Amino acid sequence: MNRRDFMKHSVITGLAVSAVSAGAEATAAAGSRRVLGKMALRPTRLGMGTGTRSWNRDSAQIRTGRDHFIRTLRHAYDRGIRYFDMADLYGSHWYVREAMKDGKMPREDLVLLTKTWSREPEVVRADVERYRQELATDYLDVVLLHCLRKPGWTRRFRPAMDILSEAKAAGRIRAVGVSCHDFDALKEAAASDWVDVILARINPFGVKMDAPVEAVVPVLERAHAAGKGIIGMKILGEGQIAGKIDESLQFALGLGCVDAINIGFTKPEEIDDAMDRFNRFA
Asked: Which of 116, 132, 147, 262 is the Cys-Cys partner for 127 at CB 3.0 to 4.6 Å?
């Protein structure tokens, strides 16, 4: 191992050790709630993602079949999960709506996050109204600009951001933010006063992340210290590190700057396994 690789390994190891030893609060049980940044939102520390390998309103969850998907959503709720991650691109709004019917998943008990791929202001305005109708809810807890891939977005997408701000002021949205797939875009989000919530890719192995672990973690720490809610995604690297789930869960939760994480479960057994692992950490 050369000096550069040795230093990189040392930094990552140090971060991992800090995460694992961060204490009971950092590794609280999956069904416990944590305040999301400065927002009056309290998602459960473990959330269910609904867009595994998704595109064009299709996903691994949808491909399991309507009844199975709804049953999995309700099983997540029954096991204590109250945060559900969606997007227009995933096509999951209608399924979550069905899962909420008949009081099976009471709306007031949930934190519902969704995302818009649109950048045009009038389309974003229409998206917010359509999402509320699709989910049969008066308000959306979090709406994100989906999948930012380049820096400069706070300038280019300001009109779309203003529409989301208007919806927030009117009570149709409770928090706004971004999901990032680019390190410079992530750094810009961390510095933006507009951003309430960042959905960021994080795991201890750098798989499917925006930059190496030792670069990403300080950015998330700065954002969290500034009052932004941080939600972790790609905890299992789209399944590439599923065999290292304990290390990934402990790392992400132990950082202290990650308020919640989401995992794209496709069947109840996966939820049970993750919940049991989570709860052993407490």
From this structure: 116
